[in-house]
Amino acid sequence: MVARVFELLFKYRPLVFSRGDLVAASPIPLGAIIALGLVALALAGLAYRRANATLPPRVRVALFGLRAGVVAVLVFCLSGPALRLSTVVPQQNVLGILIDDSRSMGVADQDGQTRGATAAAAFAPDGALMRALSQRFRVRLFGFSSSVTRTDSVTGLTFEGRRTDLAEALSAARRELSTQPLAGLVVVSDGADNAGAALTEPLLALAADRIPVHTVGIGTERFEPDIELRRVALPPSVLQGSVVVAELSVQAPGFGGRTVPLVVEEEGKILSRTEVRLPAGREPAAVRAHFQVSEPGPRRVRFSIPAQEGELLAENNSVEALLTVEPRVERILYFEGEPRFEVKFLRRAVADDDRLEVVTLLRTAEDKFLRLGVTDSTELAAGFPRTRAELYRYRGLILGSIEASFFTHDQLQMLADFVGVRGGGLLVLGGRKALANGGWAQTPLGDVLPVVVDPAAADTTFFVEVAVRPAPLALDHPVLQLRSTAEASAARWDSLPALSLLSPVREVKPGANVLLTGNGPGGPYVVLATQRYGRGRAMTLAAQDSWMWQMDADIPLEDDTHEVFWRHLLRYLVSDVPRPLTARLSADRVEPGQAVTVTADVADSGYVQVNGAQVQATIVDPAGAEHEVPLRWTVRRDGEYEASWTPALSGLHELRVHAEQDGQVLGETVVHFHAGDLGAEYFGAALQEGTLRRIAEETGGRYYTPSTLRTLPEDVAFTESGATVVEYRDLWDMPVLLLALIGLLSGEWALRKRRGLA
Amino acid sequence: MLRTSVHSRMRPAVLVPMLSALLTGNGTGGGQEPAPQEQQPAQVIPPGRAFYFTRAVYTSYGRWRPSWAVDYPKADVQFLYALRRLTGLDAYELENPVALDDPELRRFPFLYAVEVGRMALTEAEVDGLRGYLLAGGFLVVDDFWGTREWENFESEMRRVLPERAIVELPQDHPLLNTFYGIDSIVQVPNVGNGMRGGPTWERDGYVPHLRAIFDDGGRLMVLISWNSDLGDAWEWAENPHYPLPYSNYAISLGVNLVLYGMSR
Fold first, then answer.
1. Contact B106 A551 (CB under 8 A)
2. How deeply is A335 buried, as exposed, middle or buried, from its count of CB atoms within 10 A (0-12, 13-18, 19+)?
3. ipTM, two decimals
4. Are B212 and B195 in contact (CB under 8 A)?
C-alpha cells in the first residue's frame, strides 16, 4: 500500500530511485537556473517588504517562505531532473533462476498447497511472470539442493533433494553463467539451508561482480502445529550394558503442554518409552530419554514422537544417532585404607557386571595389604602404585578411608595427574580417614575434588545419619537411574534407608554438580558430587556405608538398588576416560558425498601428546573396500591429527585409526559413521526469511514473496551487471511537484486574503 | 523418617537369663524347653564404627543358661582386643549381642554363634537369619562337638537355608590366607582340657572340621568350626596356663574370618 502511494506521488517505485542517480538534464545551465531563481526570490522579498509595513514580521516571513517554496519547485522543474539508470538491453542478458528442489519444498504450508507447487505455479513456463522475464532476458533455470542442475522447465523438478546447499547453489550458478552477460540471479527457496556451508564467500564474490541476487521466500515462518526433534546429544561410545542418557532438543509450536511418548528404538526393538511434556511456544526445550543397549558394536538408535493429529510435518518427529557399544572391560583400582564392609559390598555389587573389574588393595594393618582381583602375583605387589605408568593402567580409581599422609608428595601429585593429565575417573569415598578428617584439604588432590574440603571441618567425633535424595534436576543423571523409568527411580530414592556421614561436606566447587544430597541434623549435606577436572572426572561419595542399601532390614532381598547404583556409578566414572589414542568424527551420520573429518588425539603411554607420530586411518566402506587415509598434525594443538574423507556409498563405515612413532605402536582405535539419508530437509524446515533477505541485501538484490513477485521482471532489469544501457527517467512531471505548487500558491493566496492583501 | 540407628540399640544383659535359669531350675540336665532369650535395655553402643563383633542371640534348649551366651562376653572382648591390636580395623571394643529376629541384625554383617548343638530356632529367628545371610551377612559358628550336636545344628540350618549344602572348606580357600597363613586345621580344646593337658576332643568329636555354606557366587555365607572351641582360646588367651599354640591359632583364624567377612 505504501509502495503504491509512493509510486502515485513520485511516478516511480522506490526501487527505481534506489537504483538510479539523480541528474539535472535541462539544456539550460544549472547555474543560470539557480541565478534566475535567486533573482525571483529577491524580487519577492522586496515586494513583501514594501507591500505593507503594518504586517507583522512573522506573517511577512511566512509569505516569503511560501513564495520561496514556489520558486524552489519551479527551479527544480526547470533544471530537468531525471534518474539515470542502468538497465538491461532486452534479450542481451541472461537471468539465472534457481529453484529449490529439496524435500522441504514438499511441505504443504501454503494454504494446503506445497511450497514446490507454489514455486511451480509462479514460475510456470506459460505464466505471466516467466513471459515478462523472457521478454527481457534469456532465462536459465536451475534446480538446486545439494548440487545444482540445469532444467528447461520448473515442471522438471521433483522436490526430492536430500539437502539444501545455498552457498554451493550460488557459486555453481555463477560459475555456470560466468561466460555470459549475467543480469542477476533469482533464488526461489524456503531458505532452509542444512549444508552448514558459510554463505559469506559466495556472497562477497557476487557482490564484487555486481551480480544482484533476488530471493523469493516460499513457506511460512510460523510453522505450526508441528513437533520437531531437533538435536540429540549422546556419548559417542558407552560400555556395554550401561544406561545411556540422551538429551534431545524438541520444539513443538501448537502442541505446548501436551504429554507425548518419546520412544527409543534400535533396529525395531523398543529400548525405552518415556512420557515427555512438550514445551510451549517456539523455543526448543531439552528432554531426556534413558535406555540401555545390550548388543556390542555400532548401533543406530532412533528417537521418535508419534505424529499428532493435525501436525504439519511428521517426518521431523524422529531423529537417529549412532552409538558405539563397547564390549571392553574397564579396570578400576579401589584402594581402601582400613577394613570395612564397604569393600565387601562394593565388590559384590559389581561382581556380576562383566564389564567392570574392581581391583582392590585393602590395607589390613600397618604396611600390610590384601590384594583382591589382581591378574597376577606382581600386580600391586608393592602396595599402592608408585609410578605413573603403574597407576595409569587403571581407568578409574576409588580412594576409600585413607589418610593423605599415607602418600608421598609425588604420589599425591600423581593422583591429581591421574585425573587431570591421564583423564581417569576418581571417586573418593567418605570414611573415618577420608576428606577433612584424612587431611586432604591442602593437598594436590584437594583441588581435584568436586567438593570443598574444609580443614576446619575435621572432627573425628562427627556422625550424622542422613536421608539421601537426588539433588534438584539431578534425577535424570545416569548414575541415579535405579529403575527403568524416571517415576520408578524417584519413588525408589524416596524410600531408601538412611546412610551415615563421618565428615560434613556442605559446599561444592564452582562448576561441580551435586547429584545426591543428605538431609539430617545440621544439613543439608553434599553426598554425591561430580566435576570435570582437566581431561578426567572427579567424584565424591561422602557416605561411609552405602552397603546399608543392601543390608538394611527395609530392603527386600530381591531388591537390586545397591547393585544398580554402584554399577551405574562406576560405569559413569570411567565412561569418558581417554586412551593414548582417541579418534572422533565431525559427524556420525552424513549424506553420501558429504565429507567427514576424523580427528585423532595421540599421546604416549604417559599421556604426553605426541606430534611426530605416523597416524593412518583405514576406512572400510559398506562394500568392504579399504581406503587408506593419512592423518596430519593440525599444528593447532599438540597431539591432534586430522583428515577428511568423503563417502560415496550409503551404509556403515568403519574407521580404524592406527598411530605409531619410530616403529613403536602408540595405539589403535575404531570409530564408525553411517552414510545415508539423514532426512535433514525436514528439520528446521520453516521459512528462513532472514537468510534470504541477507542474500538479497548483501548482493544488491531484493527479497520477494509470491504475492510481491509482480514487479520482479522490471526490478531485475535495473542492474549494472551484464549488457546494459543508460536510461534517463524524467522527474519534473512527478505529481508530487504539481501538488506542492498548488499547495504553496494556495497557502500564499489564503494568507494574503486574510491580511487584506489580495 | 530415619530408622533407628545403631547407637540407640540396646544390648541384652546376660546375667538376667542366667539368674532366671537358676531360679526356675532350667539347668543343664533339664528338658527340651527352649531357653528364653530375654533382653532388657542395658547400654548404648557408639555409632559409626567400622566393625562390631556381633554375637548371635538365639533360642536354645536344655541348659541352665542360654547356649548363645557361652564364653560371653569375655571371649568377645578379648578377641576384639587382639583384633584391634593386630589389624588396622576400627572395631568397637565391647561385645554386641543381637537377636536373630531383631531387624537391627542386618546392620552387623559379621555374626558369631556358639554352642549351636542345642539351637532351637523360632520361626522368626529362622526368617531373620535366612534374610540376614541372603542379604550378604556372614555367620561364623563355633564350639559345638560330636555327632548329636552336629545333627541338631544341621537340621536347624536346613530350616534356614534348605537349598544350600554344607560342604568341607577346601584347604586352599582364600579365607585361610586372608591375613595369616593357616596351613592346617587345629582342634582347640575347651579351657579345662586345654589347661590340664587333657584330650582335645569332646564327646565323639575327635576330628576338627571347617565346613562352609557358599552362595551362588562361591562366596562364604556360613563358616562352621565344628569339634573345636575358638571362643575358649580367645577367652583364656591372657592366662599363662592356657597353651599358646591354641590361642595363636584361634586368634589367627578369627582375624582371618573377620577380614574375609569384611572384604569378600
1. yes
2. buried
3. 0.89
4. no
